[in-house]
TrEMBL record:
Residues 180-269 form the Peptidase M20 dimerisation domain. The active site is at D69, E128 (proton acceptor). The keyword DNA damage does not apply. Keywords: Amino-acid biosynthesis, Diaminopimelate biosynthesis, Hydrolase, Lysine biosynthesis, Manganese, Metal-binding. One of its GO terms (biological process) is lysine biosynthetic process via diaminopimelate. It catalyses: N-acetyl-(2S,6S)-2,6-diaminopimelate + H2O = (2S,6S)-2,6-diaminopimelate + acetate. Its EC number is 3.5.1.47. It comes from Terrihalobacillus insolitus. This is N-acetyldiaminopimelate deacetylase. Mn(2+) binds at C94, H96, E128, H154, H346. One of its GO terms (molecular function) is N-acetyldiaminopimelate deacetylase activity. HAMAP family: DapEL. It comes from the Bacteria. Belongs to the peptidase M20A family. N-acetyldiaminopimelate deacetylase subfamily.
């Protein structure tokens, strides 16, 4: 694929972001692209809304996996780009349009010039939620084409184009979603004493959550609790009977997340008594940390430097990735690809530089050839 085709592909995908396990148009588009480049040594499988493409090698000893996630986020795009999302309320604000395009670009090169080993491209749904990797690992499709080694990339808005970044060991955090539902008693805004106001209760719960991190956790054990959504009530002069908060918990060590959950549950019991309400907690999906294989990262670094791409040592990040589950099963790694955007991941104005597509294709292809 030349640069113009990469750009067109990315723009088409950018216009059709779909949420986890709803990637119907995305899957159809990917299948159509693959069908056009397919040759005799290429096999395709579908898994739910994802697809897998296997390119047989010339003299295979191993199977190498490259995973690209394919879902978008429920964000209203505000880039004003001519190719902005046609699915209002959804956006590729985490760069999965880039991830897919790069995978397609590399796929085409590999089909035309296979390596010795077999390569499986995994276009995986639902990374942002509820998580596609874990159910995929239990599927017959994974068992049939189970790679011996695997890698993936994620765009990095804060890094310049022409730079990649990674590290041996822990790259991304352990995560757990957090959904808390509050039920009290509604009523007239003029008579708060006759109600159990869940907007007030949920608001103080959000504030108190931050004290779990700052007062209950060992400061040397990094943790984050972020609430991204709060809802409750219907109108300005009625006290809300119900409220709900939605957020995420992140830690660098897996057991610390359990300590946080215990603290949240204890705090909820206190709120039930003091606010005279009932509270239910659901942890949604949980992702295992992304832990990179040290030897593979070392080889990756020398590969990218050999093709003139800058390598920067990364620090651990509080981002989560269900790719961590794949790395728990087989050796591999994830790396950041610099895309230089003034706005970060999950921002409605995220606008990665498209020149990074070519760098991504070159880096992934070279890695496959030298891994
Ligand atoms: C790379 C990235 O941004 N990943 C997401 C993963 C979300 C996991 C889950 N839905 C949660 O919020 O805990 C992230 O937000 O880090």
């Amino acid at each position: 694929m030349d640069y113009t085709t990469l750009q067109e592909t990315r723009r088409t995908l950018h216009q059709i972001p779909e949420l986890g396990f709803q990637e119907i148009k995305t899957q159809a588009y990917l299948l159509q692209k693959v069908e056009r480049m397919k040759k005799r040594h290429v096999e395709v499988k579908q898994w739910r809304t994802g697809i897998l493409v296997k390119v047989s090698g010339k003299n295979p000893i191993r199977t190498i996996g490259f995973r690209a996630d394919i879902d978008g986020l429920p964000i209203h795009e505000a880039t004003g780009l001519e190719f902005e999302s046609m699915h209002k309320g959804n956006m590729h604000a985490c760069g999965h349009d880039f991830h897919m395009t790069i995978a397609l670009g590399v796929l085409e090169r590999l089909i035309n010039q296979p390596i010795d080993d077999d390569v499986v491209f995994i276009f995986q749904p639902a990374e942002e939620g509820p998580g596609g990797a874990l159910p995929f690992l239990q599927s017959s499709e994974w068992k049939q084409w189970n790679p011996d080694v695997i890698f993936a990339l994620h765009i990095a808005p804060e890094l310049p184009v022409g730079t990649v970044s990674s590290r041996a060991g822990l790259l991304f955090a352990n995560t757990s979603e957090l959904f808390v539902h509050f039920k009290g008693k509604g009523g007239h805004a003029a008579y708060p004493h006759l109600t159990k106001d869940m907007v007030v209760t949920a608001s103080s719960f959000v504030t108190q959550l931050q004290q779990i991190v700052s007062r209950k956790m060992d400061p040397l054990q990094s943790a984050v609790i972020s609430i991204g959504k709060i809802s409750g009530g219907f109108v300005q002069n009625v006290i809300a009977e119900e409220a709900r908060i939605e957020g995420t918990i992140r830690t660098l060590k897996a057991p610390v997340i359990d300590d946080i959950k215990q603290n949240i549950e204890q705090m909820a019991k206190g709120f039930e008594i003091s606010a005279d309400c009932s509270i239910s907690i659901d942890y949604g999906s949980n992702y295992y940390q992304v832990f990179n294989d040290a030897n593979l990262v070392k080889r990756f670094k020398s590969t990218v430097e050999a093709i003139g791409v800058q390598y920067q040592e990364a620090g651990p990040a509080m981002t989560g990735e269900d790719f961590g589950y794949m790395l728990k099963e087989i050796p591999g790694f994830m790396f950041w690809l610099g895309v230089d955007s003034g706005y970060g991941l999950h921002h409605a104005k995220l606008n990665p530089k498209e020149e990074a597509l070519q760098v991504g294709v070159d880096v992934v292809e070279s890695t496959l050839r030298r891994l």
